[in-house]
User: What shape does this take?
Amino acid sequence: MPNTRQAQWKRFLVEGVVILVSILLAFSIDAWWDSRNEQQREREQLVSMLAEFKTDLTGLDSVLNSIQGHAQNVDTLIALLNAAGDEPVPVPGPLLGSAITWRTSDVSKSALDALMASGDLNLLRNTELRTNLAGFPAFLSDVREDENVAQNFAESHMSVFLAREGLAEIAYAYREGVQDPGGIPDLAAPEEISVLSSPELIGFLTARRVHFWYSEVGLPDVRSYLQVLIEQIEGELLARGWNR
Assistant: This one.
């Protein structure tokens, strides 16, 4: 009888150990699977943001080049009017078109927005990258605030003033994109128009020049921020051995 009881206890002990090991193994498998899924999700999010930021960088260069061209046109227009004094001066249409043109940076961050909305930003192991990503929306918001001011001024003030002066038709005809393919081919306007300078007109044009200057200063900063994010993401993918 004692041997039988001893054998039963041994069997119970072995069964208990087997059950315990099975539970621990199940937990380990679950933890490994969860970790694998988190790493896979992290990799996909990094790759999505990298592709989006690279596209943003290319588009930003195009916008900045456009803004610099319009700023130069406004400078030329101000110089023409100042040199003319009280006499009317012929002004090429594109110069007036630049006076009512506005551009926005159009930086897309949908992948980052999705990451932050899901709460997965904390999954990123790189603390510096996580911090820079978290700060990017606020940084971009400051630039967009200036762009919104410029847009509102061009549409609600500059264009209204030019309309009152009889210059809106030619200005809109030479506004960026209007005469491009897909624009308004039937919108005809003379190549130039006689303009009489006034302190009010110079003031409006100076305001537009300041708006362009905001973008000329702000967009390179956005570009630098994007370059830092791209370098950090590429470095993280490389360090983790993730094939993009």
About this structure: The mean pLDDT is 85. The first helix runs from residue 2 to 84. Helices lie at 2-84, 93-99, 110-118, 127-164, 168-173, 199-239.
